[in-house]
Amino acid sequence: MATTDMLLPLKAMKPTFEPLIDHPNGVVLSNDDFDPTKHIDFTPPAKTYTMGDLSLPEDTGVSPFAVSEPFHLFTAEAIHRMRAEVLSKEVWESCQYSSNLAQCQLRGFAPQYAPFIYDTWKNPETLAIVSKIAGIDLVTEMDFEIGHINISVKSETQKEEELRAYAEKASADADEGIAGCPWEDDKPIVDWHTDSYPFVCVTMLSDCTNMIGGETALRTGNGDILKVRGPQMGCAVVLQGRYIEHQALRALGTAERITMVTSFRPRCPDQRDDTVLTTVRAISNLPELYFQFSEYRLEILEERIRNQLRVLRETKRSGKKVDTRKLKRFLYDQERFLAHMNKEMIEDVKMGEIDDSHLLGDHSVKRRKVSSDAR
Description:
By secondary structure, the protein is α+β, with helices and mostly antiparallel strands. It is built from eight helices and 16 strands.
């Protein structure tokens, strides 16, 4: 394998800020294991949107579901435990990445540095909640993608300057009869992209009490922009982000915006798996990413082959003829499945640089549709 340009820890970017949320009322956090009866506080979303609601074909993804409104998911104690793990010195020194899509991200820290976060997303009750909202039985994509963190941090001075500029712009627009205030969208936290994985659950880890903006913008099938309001601390949004172009808009009125993005894929091995590595290769420990990607894909293939072998043996025992055409179709599909795996594991990767091939429409230089080979 060719030598890969790996990203070293960015020590110059270690946090120099004081988190807005440290420990609740100065209470020392417990070291208890994740307990759904203690750490989950779920309220179903008030509304979910389908692909049709976004002017996209209902069969665009692996479920008609597109995105949910924010919903409450975790207790305050659970959020503080998560913050304690992701803001630890070990995570910032060992797991920090940056790219042209986002300036500060933390990845690949669970379970080594974040056992509580790992157990949270592996718990059957958490998986059941996300699956019910998504309309399909899901599992976490792979361990490396448990708890990807996007971080935006500003000084108090920057925060006040932005709020002043916002107020002045809003006042000027009102005087001129202009609706809206689009200037805050000029510098998104995460620029336009599609996710590498079928589903994500985005959880807010910051206090958003005074936050202005911070929505997720979705590009609909007819080119319009739909904004889904950002979740409050302890709340989450589920999105079938592999198939919908979206961006995380800048937030005003707060010194930090920390979100946790956990990725999911269908549990059933016979379901499509449109996973790509386009947006994650350049911000990952490649040997570990490629191992985990290969491991779960080969497990899917293994189960598909076992199921097909069982069908063949049952057909033989029953005295029926093997459907050669159907068998050859199965083999052809698995060939494409393996070819897609091979294509995604690129040897020479320039760390930190993500091209626009992940975009689905005319908004990218290189137009790209979700490949059926991934399935």
